Amino acid sequence: MAQTSLTTAAPFAPMASPGDESSRSKSNPLSDIARRPNPDRFLPLFLAGGAFFFLSVVTTRRSLHRRAVASYPSFYHPSNRPPVNPVNGAAEAAQALGIATMNVVSGAMMVTGGVLWGMRIQGMDDMRTRMRRAMGVGESGDADQELEEWVAGVLSRKEEREGKGGGEEGKRKDGR
After folding, report:
1. What span, in angstroms and rounded, lies between the C-alpha atoms of 52 and 113?
2. How many Cβ atoms from other residues are within 10 Å of residue 53's Cβ?
3. What is the rounded CA–CA span in Å between residue 18 and residue 40?
4. Segment 48-79, tens digit of pLDDT
């Protein structure tokens, strides 16, 4: 009977050389778990979005049915009299806004989770890398550094102008 090793390397991790045992024992094993690619990371977001979307649709249907039933006159109510329950436009508008917001947020949550899960995006770094590759920008952060330097220059020029202006900010050009 052959003995099997209890410490097997994961299929995605590179094998460590024998001299790396001391550095491996110092590293945190939980950090290795955090770096693992997890293709189903955003599946719960998609499923939660689907559940919330289902609940928002049920709530919308219930609300519409309740309003329709409330608009029916009672059996012996005369047709030339005003309804027993008058319509409050502000309350109905607030309720409609709340229900619409709930529907949109739950739908957006479901779509976001579905897109991230379907495209196997693991996080912001993965999305940034994919977008740079799609736009044809290199992997280096040269464009990011140029943008940061430009923004810093613009902000420093703005601060210099505000410092020289003093109390002139509140006055208009025509002297008023």
Report:
1. 12
2. 20
3. 33
4. 989 999 999 999 999 999 988 887 777 887 87
**Cβ pair 38, 96 in contact under 8 A:** no
131 versus 95: the higher-pLDDT residue is 95
Q: Do the beta carbons of residue 115 and residue 49 sit within 8 Å?
A: no
Distance CA 64, CA 57 (A): 11
pLDDT number for residue 136? 76
pTM for this structure? 0.53
Amino acid at 56: S
Under a CB-based contact definition with an 8 Å cutoff, are residues 84 and 77 in contact?
A: yes
Going by the DSSP 8-state scheme, the letter that residue 56 receives in this structure is H
Asked whether the CA dihedral 74, 76, 78, 81 is positive or negative, the reply is negative
Cα dihedral across residues 48, 51, 53, 59: positive or negative? negative
- In single-letter form, the type of residue at position 54 comes to F
End-to-end CA distance of the chain: 97
Give the phi and the psi of residue 137 in degrees, each rounded to 5.
-85, 145
CB atoms near residue 46 (< 10 Å): 20
Residue 107 is predicted with a pLDDT of 93
